[in-house]
Amino acid sequence: MPFKSRLLSSDTAVQTKYKAGDYLFQENGNSQFYYYILAGTVKLNNYDEDGKEFIQDILYEGANIGVSMLLLGRPYPVNAVAMEHSIILKMSRDHFMDLVNSNLDSAYDLCLSLSENTYNKFLLLRNRSNKSATKRIIEILDLLKSQQKDQARFAFEIPHTRQQLAALAGLCLETTIRTVKKLERDKILIIKNRKVFY
DNA sequence: CCATTAAAGTTGC
DNA sequence: GCAACTTTAATGG
Q1: How far is CA A22 from the centre of its chain?
Q2: CB atoms closer than 10 angstroms to residue A60
Q3: What are A163-173's pLDDT values in tens digits?
Q4: Of A12, A57, A59, A68, residue with least CA distance to A36
Q5: Facing residues of A55 across strands?
Q6: Which of A45, A81, A123, A195 has the fewest CB atoms within 10 Å, i.e. the most exposed one?
């Protein structure tokens, strides 16, 4: 049986609800639980000395959170914050280890899922080596859209503020706003009621 | 419903 | 990138 089925049918996992802005865990905290997103969106971020946010990743339904820290027993290098009302499956380290060790399929599934996380992180990191703001923003939009069902042009309403896009792209707010407007002029995206559609 | 205030977005420098 | 400004959303009567 695959990992996900075992997880969902396990009586050792607890459903927890989080409101937008609630923390699942905080930077430097000890890794205690395994988290799985049943519904909602969670971002992994840090803040620099000036309080400016830096988003490391955005995770959606079906994603694992914090597996590498749990396996290694290391403190969290990021905060995990719910971006909207979210339902998260939580499981203690011991129960999680039992589940992973219970059969090969589970371990393999977990490996796939970890790979997904790692790959996504590489994409986001590579993006920050792009020179132009335009390229950075477009790549962020592509990445966000690739996780959506509806691939039609302009069908995807970006569920983030300019501030958040800036934190994802590693750009300042003003540059992001100017870039987004330029992309609108170039007909690469459209803006309706301040919301970006791509 | 309107008034007040906070947050997001915009623009010139 | 700061600061001043405009617009929109949220809150409370």
Answers
A1: 15
A2: 15
A3: 999 999 999 99
A4: A59
A5: A45
A6: A195
